[in-house]
Design a protein that fits this description.
globular, Aspartate Aminotransferase, domain 1, alpha/beta, 456 residues
Length: 456
């Protein structure tokens, strides 16, 4: 088989500023060992997130120039609405400035004290918006999804048995909706099978519980279904995506992922009353219903990006690029979540640095060392991001301690990824010298964005 190449040509470039180890040590210290607080100009390879970091296409930039900036009823909104309706089949399309704004609106309406929202695994902003409303965010991953080294096709699935028990124990009247995140970001970027989505819908339907998708990486999930699930090899990714959405009563989406843009999102749903309430909140918090916190040019770029993301040549390149990094790390013995996900490689921090206990944040130690050694910015997904405190003040850790290397779309070349692998291997070789961290200051919600640390 021939080399899988980038299905695009590079038309514009941005310089990278190189730094030394000693410079990066001082940068880390000034940022209080939180890579979110490092200036982007001081980063060589930025793998903090794949959200809003995509390189846009020539047609997207052309759409930005063509955007209709009318306050109400802009031409760009109607194109945006038309593309999303054709893809999702959902009746009401409500633009927001990003995914968390859609979550905020949705859970402000359906959440509240006494309510519970099950999910295969909530990501950080989803969990925060659920809990901010007073509701409980409940993760129901499959058992294999909690085992980083286990290879299985759909480790992102929701646990159907656990969901059935949860409904019986909590009561359907206390569950305003069930959400499935595709792909399962907190679970290592693992995909969800069509059979699992279909079965979840069938389980929820008799109780009248709506099914929502967190759809920010829907195209990558659809391509995994095409590659791995029986009966879909000859089905187009567009048709697979449409079937996924056909089981959903609504969705939230950060367009900053699989719509290939730097800002934007939407809430889409079928329920007329819920849509009316959502639009009322949108006007208060985001803007009028046909722009929702976005410029017309943003709406144009999102519509174009949703068309481009379904190109199977692009998706082949995308998944293979991530798998390429995973193969290099696995061959050298670096423990990662297997098989590689669609948008990122997740280092298993527990296995990478077993001498650092969860309450000393092994993932944060790896994150800091990757930056110190090679200028690579990554993010901890473990006890810093999802840890909570027991009544006695002790840390309640999540099932996995991970470090995510999120690959921006259409941004880095193979040589950049080779460099990332070299840096990870250097840190892995010296892993016994890694030290844990303590938190000095933290916010009550989403603490990983602004917390300050000190090495032990």
């Amino acid at each position: 088989m021939k080399t899988i190449i980038e299905p695009f040509k590079i038309k514009s470039v941005e310089p990278i500023r190189f730094s030394t180890v000693s410079e990066r040590e001082e940068i880390l210290k000034k940022a209080n060992y939180n890579t979110f607080l490092i200036a982007a100009d001081d980063v060589l390879i930025d793998l903090l997130t794949d959200s809003g970091t995509s390189a846009m296409s020539a047609k997207q930039w052309a759409g930005i120039m063509d955007g209709d900036e009318s306050y109400a009823g802009s031409r760009s909104f109607f194109r945006f609405e038309r593309v999303i309706r054709a893809l999702t089949g959902l009746k009401h399309v409500i633009p927001t400035h990003q995914g968390r704004a859609a979550e905020k609106i949705l859970f402000s309406i359906v959440g509240g004290a006494g309510k519970s929202i099950p999910n295969n695994t909530h990501f950080d902003t989803t969990r925060a918006n659920v809990e901010f409303s007073g509701a409980e965010a409940v993760d129901l991953p499959t058992p294999e999804g909690k085992q980083p080294g286990l290879i299985a096709d759909f480790k992102g699935n929701i646990n159907l048995e656990a969901l059935a028990s949860f409904i019986e124990n909590v009561g359907p009247k206390n569950i305003p909706l069930c959400m499935i995140t595709v792909t399962n970001n907190s679970g290592g970027g693992q995909p969800v099978s069509m059979a699992n989505i279909r079965a979840a819908k069938k389980l929820l339907q008799p109780y009248g519980i709506p099914l929502f998708l967190d759809a920010c990486r829907f195209a990558e999930n659809a391509f995994f279904i095409k590659k791995r699930e029986a009966g879909y090899a000859d089905v187009s990714v567009r048709d697979i995506a449409r079937e996924m959405f056909s089981y959903a009563d609504g969705c939230t989406m950060s367009a900053k992922k699989d719509a290939l843009v730097n800002m934007g999102g939407f809430l889409a749903l079928n329920n007329d009353d819920l849509a009316r309430q959502a639009r009322n909140l949108l006007i208060v918090t985001e803007g009028f219903t046909t722009y929702g916190g976005l410029a017309g040019r943003d709406l144009e770029a999102i519509a174009q990006g949703l068309e481009e993301i379904l190109d199977e040549h692009y998706l082949t390149y995308r998944l293979r690029s991530v798998e390429y990094l995973g193969d290099k790390l696995t061959a050298a013995g670096v423990p990662i979540v297997l098989p590689p996900g669609g948008h990122a490689i997740y280092i298993d921090a527990k296995a990478f640095a077993p001498h650092i206990p969860p309450h000393r944040y092994p993932g944060q130690a790896i994150v800091c060392e990757l930056f110190r050694v090679g200028g690579i910015r990554s993010v901890e997904i473990g006890s810093v991001m999802f840890g909570k405190y027991a009544p006695d003040g002790s840390l309640l850790s999540p099932a996995m301690e991970l470090v995510r290397l999120a690959i921006p779309r259409r941004v880095y070349t193979q040589s950049h990824i080779d460099y990332v692998a070299e840096v990870v291997l250097e840190v892995f070789a010296g892993r016994s010298s890694l030290r844990g961290y303590k938190i000095l200051e933290e916010a009550p919600v989403l603490r990983h964005f602004t917390a300050t640390f000190a090495p032990l």
